[in-house]
Amino acid sequence: MHLVVCAKQIPDPETPPAAFRIDAGTNAVVPAAGIKPVLSPFDAQAAEAALRIREQAGEGKITVISLGQGSAQDAIKQVLAMGADEGVLLNDDAFERGDSYTTAHVLAAAIRKLGDVDAVFCGRQAADWDMGQVGLGIAELLGWPCAIVAKDVQLADGAVTVQRVLTDGFETVRTPLPAVVTVSNELGDPRYPKLQQIMQAAKKTVTNWSAADLGLDASSVGAAGSRLRLVGLAQPEAGGAVEIIEGDTPEAQAQALVQALIDARII
Amino acid sequence: MAQNVLVVGELVNGALAATTRELLGLASRIAEGGSVGVALLGASASAAAPEAFSFGAARVYASDDATYDVFRSDQWVAAAEAALELAQPATILLSQTMVGRDLGPRLAFRRATAAAMDCLRVEMTGGALQVTRPSYGGNALATYTFATSPAVVTVRAKSQEQPVAATGAAGEVVALPAAGASRTEVVSRDAAAGEGLQVQDAGIVVSGGRGLGAPEGFRIVEALADAFGRDRAAVGSSRAACDLGWYPPSQQVGLTGKVVSPDLYVAIGISGASQHMAGCSGAKNIVAINRDREANIFRAARFGIVGDYKIVIPALIEALKAAKR
Ligand SMILES: Cc1cc2nc3c(=O)[nH]c(=O)nc-3n(C[C@H](O)[C@H](O)[C@H](O)COP(=O)(O)OP(=O)(O)OC[C@H]3O[C@@H](n4cnc5c(N)ncnc54)[C@H](O)[C@@H]3O)c2cc1C
Ligand SMILES: Nc1ncnc2c1ncn2[C@@H]1O[C@H](COP(=O)(O)O)[C@@H](O)[C@H]1O
Predict the structure, then answer these.
(1) What is the DSSP pairing of strand B5-8 with strand B36-41?
(2) What is the domain partition of chain B in residue ranges?
(3) pLDDT tens per residue, chain B (325 residues)?
(4) In the CATH scheme, what architecture does the domain B199-324 have?
(5) CA–CA separation, B24 vs B18, rounded Å?
(6) Most buried of the four, A225, B123, B143, B224, by CB within 10 Å?
(7) How many CB atoms neighbour CB B270 within 10 A?
(8) Measured on CA atoms in the order B251, B285, B98, A100, is the torsion positive or negative?
(9) DSSP per position, B114-183
């Protein structure tokens, strides 16, 4: 059994809004001082799903793939420390400033090159651009089925059974392998690597593949191949000032708030 | 510049979903004289056609095959592709629902194009489609144009005006094929217990977060919703509270939960992380109850009380009851 986890490194989504800055000239987010980039949280859950499946099966190999700059090694290492076996870093200047389409295109090519993959695990969305389409894109490009927003994933007898989170409840679907599954936070907390595992991860192999290694033309990837053109990036306007309701007692505060709501015709 | 626009619609209890009506209104605005079509799938598809005409569709691509009543991606993609062939749209609109989240990217990748997901603004500027969508958990608004056609766009619920129905509008119904094969089998479905007023439809939403400290805190939050009146108020929660198992995920408000736009949103023990605000920033008024004056929620709130909810909320419930008398 060969499972693949797609892991992206992103600016920390818990960056306080006050520390979040955009460079209007380049339409890019300015890395916040002193806040390190992280593994996108849903991708840690995707890794957790793959690890649970391997534990149940008692066998299997897990490869983690990341498309990104050299620093994306850290995201790969984190998944290796959680228990994945091998890493692949897709790093090439030609991959820069791509979109969902080119990202899925490159990841699908890497999965094809690995050859014997049974299932691919992605996050439900990368917590930087919040798109939520690369998993489905990989599935379409490979011609595989895909189940999105998984809460629980079981793999047996050549099929994957996925409990999915719907808007109002849950749904269980079953789909033949190979398949792509995108994982949501309802799966539960990802495991936290122990110090020993972090040290072991440092010794695990991380292979670097370029566009040429994947047989991809530079014009089909990165900015050159992208379908979406980012033409603006702005910070939403902050709301007006808050009116803090004071009072000598909680009762007085509560009455003042209710009166304010009535005066403003809100209730 | 006139363009054909295709809406992939959704049906609720035999009628157009509110989100689909929003899309039809939007489609008419951006078609600029081109044809608006809508694909409707399921037992009541052609029965809903007159409603679709009244909201501006010229053509309804419909299959009444009841198999479509349960969303199976393979079947819906094939049907949407068939509608695409017939309608030849430059823009395809879907709602950012579970259907749209799944179908949007699939359709886009089949056409070697890309989708822009969860858009708030969709407009034609200088003959080109331009969309704006939140990103970075709501910390940024990203604007895109498309290098390839058709453009696939999913649209956030309640981000568009509800269109007014025209009387006497007519159009054409074009048949779509019955459902084909699906690789994926739906084994079972469990509806969330949530009966009654849904959080996304409520005029008042009272939400609790990790600051409640324990699941019992939600009883106090529910009592506040009762005091506002359960015909108008529903209870929501932050993801932190859901992840802790204190409240069902169906009530989660935020980027990956429900998007609410009530007249009044009361955030109790919620810090106001951007991903939470992504789900409630459309509220007309936010009231924050939080112990920490520095909490981000106060940056978005109109009114706030700094204090322990265990003291503030019971007093608030009493004050509401007194005001009603
Ligand atoms: C990709 C992504 C998607 C996400 N999607 C969502 C989403 O959809 N919805 C969502 O909510 N979050 C989402 N999150 C999580 C989000 O970033 C925050 O972690 C979460 O919203 C925090 O929840 P909280 O405000 O309840 O808890 P905390 O941030 O822990 O805040 C608790 C607050 O309670 C206050 N408090 C404590 N005790 C009391 C008391 N006795 N009385 C009054 N106040 C008190 C504290 O001062 C604090 O401000 C997402 C995160 C990521 C990365
Ligand atoms: N650069 C990347 N490298 C590896 N995986 C990625 C990358 N971008 C996206 N993914 C995967 O696709 C998922 C959805 O991403 P997105 O469609 O960008 O929101 C992520 O959670 C990852 O699992």
Answers:
(1) parallel
(2) 5-175, 199-324
(3) 899 999 999 999 999 999 999 999 999 999 999 999 999 999 999 999 999 999 999 999 999 999 999 999 999 999 999 999 999 999 999 999 999 999 999 999 999 998 999 999 999 999 999 999 999 999 999 999 999 999 999 999 989 999 999 998 999 999 999 999 999 999 999 887 666 799 999 999 999 999 999 999 999 999 999 999 999 999 999 999 999 999 999 999 999 999 999 999 999 999 999 999 999 999 999 999 999 999 999 999 999 999 999 999 999 999 999 998 8
(4) 3-Layer(aba) Sandwich (3.40)
(5) 10
(6) B224
(7) 30
(8) negative
(9) -EEEEESEEEEETTEEEEEEEEGGGTEEEEEEESSSSEEEEE-TTSSPPPPPPTT---EEEEPPPP---S
Q: CB atoms < 10 A from the CB of B19, how many?
A: 22
What is the homologous superfamily of the domain A2-225 according to CATH? Answer: HUPs (3.40.50.620)
CA–CA dist A50, A39 (Å, integer): 16
Predicted complex ipTM exceeds 0.90 = yes
Interchain contact, A267 vs B264, CB within 8 Å = yes
Taking CA–CA distances from A143, the nearest residue in chain B reads B110
- Write down the residue that tokens 């859950």 correspond to: A45
Please tell me if the CB atom of residue B24 comes closer than 6 angstroms to any atom of ligand 1.
no
Cβ partners under 8 Å of residue B304, min gap 6: A242, A243, A244, A245, B287, B288, B289, B290, B297, B298
Q: Is the CB of B217 under 6 A from ligand 1?
A: no
Q: Across the interface, which of A127, A228, A238 has its CB nearest the CB of B116? A: A228
- Which one of B73, B139, B186 has the shortest CB-CB distance to A235? B139
Q: B211-239 b/e with 16+ CB inside 10 Å = b? A: bbeeeebbebbbebbebbeeebbbbbbbb
Q: Is the peptide bond before B150 cis (omega within 30 degrees of 0)?
A: yes
Phi/psi for A257 (5° steps) reads -65, -45
> How many Å is the Cα radius of gyration of chain A?
22
d(CA B9, CA A14): 35
Fold observed for domain B5-175: Rossmann fold (3.40.50)
Rounded to the nearest angstrom, the distance between the alpha carbon of B50 and the centre of ligand 2 is 41
Structural Rg of chain B based on CA atoms: 22
d(CA B213, CA B309): 10
Residue B119 contacts residue B156 (beta carbons within 8 Å): yes
CA B86 / ligand 1 centre spacing (Å): 47
The protein residue with its alpha carbon nearest to ligand 1, atom 27, reads B210
Q: Which sequence spans correspond to the domains of chain A?
A: 2-225, 238-267
How far apart are alpha carbons B323 and B325 in whole angstroms?
Answer: 6
CA distance A20 to A17: 5
The three-state (H, E, C) secondary structure of A11-47, written as one string: CCCCCCHHHCEEECCCCEEECCCCCCCEECHHHHHHH
Q: Tell me the residue type at A231.
A: V
pTM of the model: 0.96
The CA distance from A129 to B257, in Å, is: 17
